[in-house]
Amino acid sequence: MAKAESLKWTRVCIQCGKKMVGVASNKKLCDSCIRIRQIEHDREKAKQNKLEVAEQRVAPKHAPEDSLQNDVWEASRLGVSYGKYRAWKDGRIHIHG
User: Fold this and answer.
1) Which of 2, 63, 69, 93 is 20 to 30 Å apart from 29, CA to CA?
2) Residue 59 and residue 44: Cα distance in Å, rounded?
């Protein structure tokens, strides 16, 4: 079936009431209402993305509690090497101090 034959329907836009002639049987919005709806959707999506980015910036930038970086800092604070610190933390040696 040719495209011209399939576009024989006359519909009314559900948003503005404009009459659409020669459109598909499932078309519900006119072209201008489709554009308006798309612009509103894009604006809402951009607003959500800005909020997500702001939430990511607010998140604290520190290492997890049991991370390598924290272990290295703690070993440095105690004045021992990382290897000795890990051995002490695992209970294999005792650090005097």
Assistant:
1) 2
2) 23
